[in-house]
Design a protein that fits this description.
Blueprint: H1 8-21, H2 25-29, E1 35-39, H3 46-62, E2 66-70, H4 77-84, E3 92-96, H5 99-106, E4 118-133, H6 142-151, E5 157-160, H7 166-179, E6 184-187, H8 191-200, E7 205-209, H9 214-218, E8 223-227, E9 253-261, H10 266-280, H11 283-292, E10 295-296, H12 301-322
Helix pairs in contact: 1-10, 3-10, 3-11, 5-12, 7-12
């Protein structure tokens, strides 16, 4: 899922004009103190790594400290709720992925509204998800996997980072909703344990962000069957896309982007968005993200808002059809 790459100079020029026309000395002085980037997930995952790269280069570029604060728990809702209650002054950003919009769909109550509690700053990066299996599983293609699952209902399992996460919903759509296959869901507390379970053969299938499994596929401890995106993974060019593998109805990508509490001054939002664009255009950043299997994809706030709303409707349908609910 690629998003248009905006021209950093054009955006920055627009921001300078906006700031100059704004009478607020506070807005023109921004940032005058450290800026907190809240990551509502545990440290160490791909999303956390992306944000830390961005924070480092924002600090170097702007000349003011941008630092990461991990506030994990409850599927990301603890950190998101904390950010929603922060002052709308531009000194707290919430860095989210697709689970941010999924949690309100699967839970009766969360401490934020994805669209009312926040203002979008912009998308930052994307990465495809990939379907991989333990090498002992006798399936070397998606068609062979579907046939194996059809012939053995309830025998095989897939691992996910937890109930109601995007890999869980993606597998429900791919296996149960679209094809009526009986595959056992085994949820874990995070992507790392889910990958380790599949490496050990306790679970046989995993549908997860490609950077989490690329190295295991390279060394043969996992077998990649397909990429759940329109494009190949650069590190694994021989792995087909799902469309090439005969599954044109399934596309899932990890994405991460930034939000600020609702009411944050528009010139501050525009300034931050311009900095995102400039940082994601730096050769050093693009190279580092490429090593992680991540694509820079900065965009405008309105484009990010449309992306989140479109994703919300996509996952809402899956949640309803799979009857997924967390009390």
């Amino acid at each position: 899922m690629k998003m248009p790459f905006l021209c950093g100079l054009a955006v920055l020029s627009w921001v300078v004009t906006a700031l100059a026309s704004n009478g607020s000395a506070e807005a023109q002085a921004y940032p005058s103190k450290p800026v907190r980037l809240v990551v509502p997930y545990a440290p160490g995952g791909p999303g956390d790594a992306i944000v830390r790269i961005v924070a480092q280069h924002l600090t170097e570029q702007v000349g003011s400290s941008f630092y990461v604060e991990n506030l994990p728990g409850a599927g990301g809702t603890i950190g998101a709720g904390t950010a929603a209650r922060a002052a709308p002054d531009g000194y707290t950003l919430l860095m989210v992925n697709q689970d941010f919009i999924i949690q309100p769909l699967v839970k009766a109550k969360v401490p934020y509204d994805p669209f009312e509690s926040f203002a979008p700053v912009g998308l930052v990066a994307t990465a495809p998800e990939m379907i991989s299996v333990h090498p002992a599983l006798p399936a070397r293609s998606m068609s062979e996997l579907f046939a194996l699952l059809q012939a053995n209902p309830g025998k095989y399992s897939y691992a996910t980072p937890g109930i109601g996460t995007s890999p869980h919903l993606a597998c429900e759509r791919l296996f149960r909703i679209s094809r009526g296959l009986d595959v056992v869901h085994v949820p874990f507390q995070g992507g790392g344990p889910a990958v380790q379970s599949t490496l050990a053969g306790h679970t046989q299938i995993i549908h997860i962000i490609a950077p989490a499994v690329v190295n295991y596929v390279k060394n043969g401890t996992l077998r990649a069957l397909a990429v759940a995106d329109k494009s190949h993974v650069a590190q694994l060019p021989d792995v087909p896309t799902l469309a090439e593998a005969g599954v044109p109805d399934h596309e899932v990508a990890f994405w991460t982007g930034g939000l600020v509490p609702a009411g944050t001054p528009q010139p501050v939002v525009a300034f931050l968005q311009a900095q995102f664009v400039n940082v994601m255009g730096l050769p050093a950043v693009r190279q580092r993200l490429a090593e992680l299997g991540v694509d820079p994809a900065p965009g405008a706030p309105d484009a990010f808002a449309r992306h989140m709303r479109s994703q919300t409707e996509t996952w809402r349908t899956v949640v309803r059809e799979a009857n997924i609910r967390i009390e």
